[in-house]
Amino acid sequence: MAEVVLYHHVQGLTEGVRSFADELRNEAIRPESVYAGFSFGVMVAQRLAQTRPGARGALLMYSCLPVSEFGDAWPEAVPVQVHGKNADPFFAEDLEAAQALVDSTDRAELFLYPGEEHLFADSSLPAYDAAAAVLLTERVVAFLDAVDAENEPVND
Q1: Region at 59 (left for phi over 0; alpha for psi -120 to 50; beta for the rest)
Q2: Please, what sign has the CA dihedral across residues 132, 11, 108, 149?
Q3: HEC assignment per residue over 17-81
Q4: 3 state SS of 3
């Protein structure tokens, strides 16, 4: 699996963020970088995914900035997932940017979950939604497996 560089949300490196990272760490990790961010951490993750050579993917949880913040277009070779709650007032501000990103490339996916909780995959916070968090994690692991498969050497 690709190496994941994970940026936490504004509440810091909570036990929930650590738990999410531990789940991913338990997978076989390789040296390519997928940039992942939760909420405020999306700004850094998205910037690096859009501008850093060698980026293998981006995972944007609870937020998404307009692609124009960091360039003219999303990089052709960089797959991206955006995850958010459909009634989250914070994510509502970013939904248009997320939809525009998805519309601009076939390498982008937008996943909307029912509810209004913002930090819903952080098991250490009151906003935690176990069912949505499990689904998000499954989708992230599948994404990372796909990134890994794209970078597998071909045997002759």
Answers
A1: beta
A2: negative
A3: HHHHHHHHHCCCCCCCEEEEEEHHHHHHHHHHHHHCCCEEEEEEECCCCCHHHCCCCCCCCCCEE
A4: strand
**Domains defined along the chain, listed by start:** 3-150 (3.40.50.1820)
State both tokens at 56: 């293998």
Cα(113)–Cα(43) distance, integer angstroms: 21
Q: Determine the length of the chain.
A: 156
pTM for this entry: 0.82
The Cα–Cα gap between 62 and 89 comes to 10
- For 9-47, what is each residue's pLDDT tens digit? 878 888 888 888 777 776 544 546 899 999 999 999 999
DSSP 87-131: T-HHHHTTHHHHHHHHHH-TTEEEEEESS--SSTT-TTSTT--HH
Residue 84 CA to residue 61 CA, distance in Å, equals 6
Check: CB of residue 112 under 8 Å from CB of residue 120.
no
